[in-house]
Amino acid sequence: MGKTVFITGAAGGIGGACALEFAKKGYNVAVGYNTSDPGGLMERLKEYGGKYRAYKGDLSCYDTAVGVFADIQSDMGDIDCLVNNAGISYIGLFNTMTPDMWKKIFAADLETTVNCSHIAVKEMLKRHSGCIINISSMWGEVGASCEVIYSAAKGAVDSFTRALAKECAPNGIRVNAVAPGVIDTKMNAQLTQEEMDALIDEIPMMRLGTPEETAKAVFFLASDEASYITGEILRVNGGII
């Protein structure tokens, strides 16, 4: 039986690409989703061997997350790799936001990552092995105007990654993050063409990144090729930072 990866928010662009990348490499894939339908992804996963199952739930609720992890354990065995990809963004002025809006962003982008990591680490400690890869953002490092709360949440994910990596390293657990730049996903669909062109003009490689390019970086950090890498935030941004 091959290794198992659990990818949160896997119905989206980067999450779906990660699911396919891990499947190609022989992993069993547990697909986490909440509101987006993963049906199309599950059909594509059938092209590969291994087990593939979808698990619905709001992972920002700790009890729900515990239940999802228990179901995965029952269906697919131990989780060897956790990819914390679930998240949402909001583009708009900070002074127009409401407390409910930023609580929703922190819940999806930070609390989900903390909850799932907490549950996964407990099991990984028993085996003295495992890896966690968090999907951050370049805005977590430098901040973005009109994405203040999203930037704050991703900055917290970066700090969480580095700190947890230090704590878990003596027990054989690696924790890293990938920080994408401007990637061609639905998350950027709300931008106008003019805004998108302006962003592309700032990217030295003069194009958007793809979900597949991000997924390859994620898989590298999960692989034995990265066996001595922990606590890193790997930039995948075409040189913009």
Structure, explained:
This protein is of the alpha/beta class. It has helices at about 15-25, 40-45, 60-75, 100-125, 140, 150-170, 195-200, 210-220; strands spanning about 5, 30-35, 50-55, 80-85, 130-135, 175-180, 235. It has a seven-stranded parallel beta sheet with strand order 3-2-1-4-5-6-7, with helices on both faces. α3 runs parallel beside α4. The N and C termini lie far apart (about 40 Å). The model has no long low-confidence stretch (mean pLDDT about 95).
The helix fraction, in percent, is 40-55%
Q: Any idea what the shape is? A: globular
Structural class: alpha/beta
Biggest sheet: strands side by side, in what order?
A: 3-2-1-4-5-6-7
Keywords:
single chain, 241 residues, alpha/beta, Rossmann fold, seven-stranded parallel sheet, 8 helices, 46% helix
